[in-house]
Design a protein that fits this description.
The chain is α/β, with parallel strands linked by helices. The protein has a single domain, classed as Rossmann fold (3-Layer(aba) Sandwich). Helices cover 39% and strands 12% of the residues. The protein has eight helices and five strands. The chain has a five-stranded parallel beta sheet, covered by helices on one side. β1, α1 and β2 form a beta-alpha-beta unit. The longest helix is centred in the first third of the chain and has 14 residues. The chain is globular and about 45 Å long. The two termini are 26 Å apart.
């Protein structure tokens, strides 16, 4: 069971769910390339970059069949991987998955720009849109310091640009997924709104 995190995040986002999952499965939460403790090369990052990274990761670990859980950007990567490598995927869980052509068109333009997390104002704006618990965004200075310290601003910028261009969207590939798939979406999701998940 591979856990794939979202934009500007890392494997630590899964810390609270790993113990119950590990009671039944072999669980691996990875830092996607460009995030967390992984390498941060200056690539032309787009979803296909992450699909290739995941495929190489699984090959290195000699994992032939896998179930994937992806959140937000991670859901996009998981769905894209399942579309392009159906023989390797057993099951999918997609939580608030991004990846639809309409996403960049229907998102709040200010939120789309703020996804770059390049300033304190971006964090202040996105905080209430992305977290229910105010503790995660109330200290804007600390949150900004953590974002700068993460060292993933180049990766984030490349992905936001790719999303705006409509690169690697799922619109024409979702039909290729023929594995059991659970789609989870927050009714009150303020960042990736309801029209994108119906």
């Amino acid at each position: 069971l591979i856990l794939i995190h979202g934009l500007a995040d890392d494997a630590g986002i899964w810390d609270s769910v790993i113990p119950p999952l590990a009671a039944r499965f072999r669980v691996i939460a990875l830092d996607q390339i460009g995030f967390g403790r992984s390498d941060k090369p200056l690539l032309n990052f787009r979803i296909s970059t992450f699909v290739d990274f995941l495929d190489g990761f699984l090959a290195d670990l000699k994992i032939e069949r896998v179930s994937l859980i992806g959140n937000s950007l991670g859901g996009w990567v998981a769905a894209a991987y399942a579309s392009s490598h159906p023989e390797r995927v057993e099951r999918l869980v997609l939580s608030d998955a991004a990846g639809y052509a309409s996403l960049a068109k229907t998102m709040d333009p200010r939120a789309l720009r703020a996804l770059r997390l390049a300033s304190r104002e971006d964090i202040r704006y996105l905080g209430p849109l992305t977290f229910h618990d105010k503790r995660f965004y109330q200290d804007v200075d600390l949150a900004f310091k953590e974002r700068v310290g993460a060292g993933d601003s180049y990766t984030v910028g490349q992905l936001v640009d790719s999303m705006i261009r409509g690169d690697d969207t799922l619109d024409n590939t979702l039909h290729a997924i023929n594995r059991p798939t659970l789609v989870i979406w927050g009714r009150d999701d303020k960042l990736i709104a309801t029209p994108n998940h119906r």
